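Kindly inspect this today.
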Amino acid sequence: MREILADLVAEQQGLDQLLQRVPDRVWRARTPAAGWTVQDTIGHLAWSEEAAARVLSDDPDIAAEIAKAGSLDAFNDLGVQKARTLRPQAVIEWWRHQRAAVVDNLSRRSPDERIPWIAGTVSARTFATARLTETWAHGLDIHVALDREPVDTPRLRHVAWMGWATLPHAFAEAGLEYPSPIRVELVGPGYARWVFGPEDAEDIVRGNAGDWCRVAVRRMDPKDAENLTASGERAEQALQVACTWP
């Protein structure tokens, strides 16, 4: 768990530090997420970390609250609404407190320990990877709002893996069959080579890790992913349906 948690904290701190260098008025800047500002986005992250912390602490009410809201999107909107009643510094302190609680809890678990989550139970390692993936994805939105260029780091390896690991669920959500794993061969920052999937796979996605990650978190349209190629029908479908969210 040490490696994934260290990378999770680094991803969160990087976004935190970016926001510390901007005036409060910038928190009202619009992001690519429809209707959301920078403040809304950090509020969403704080709310999500709070929900994660509650799950990790076996809070019996969290599932009922999601059900009462009517959907996960409606539940998450409650966090955005709460953030809009707070000052920017209060929102970021909320996020800091909740993300620290999540990391503290996960640090005491084995990587393979099962944790209940939205689409079923996941390992503690995958739970942490999901937190990093969400932070990175929403961080991309904030970079756009601030007119800053994000720098891809080796931490993208976790996001790239998540994009591959969630393909069976993504195919199922799209009503498509996923009879056998596809292979994803990527070049990451510093020319690192990241490969997921069996060597004998007939369907292969190849290319730039940053593009694959952006496609997987729905921040890049597959048709704009010029640095990715798909060999095989399933690989082509993977680029269309990949989605790390439940």
Observations:
- Strands lie at 114-117, 120-123, 183-187, 193-196, 204-208, 228-231.
- The radius of gyration is 18 Å.
- The chain has a mean pLDDT of 95.
- Residues 2-145 form a domain with the Four Helix Bundle (Hemerythrin (Met), subunit A) fold (CATH 1.20.120.450).
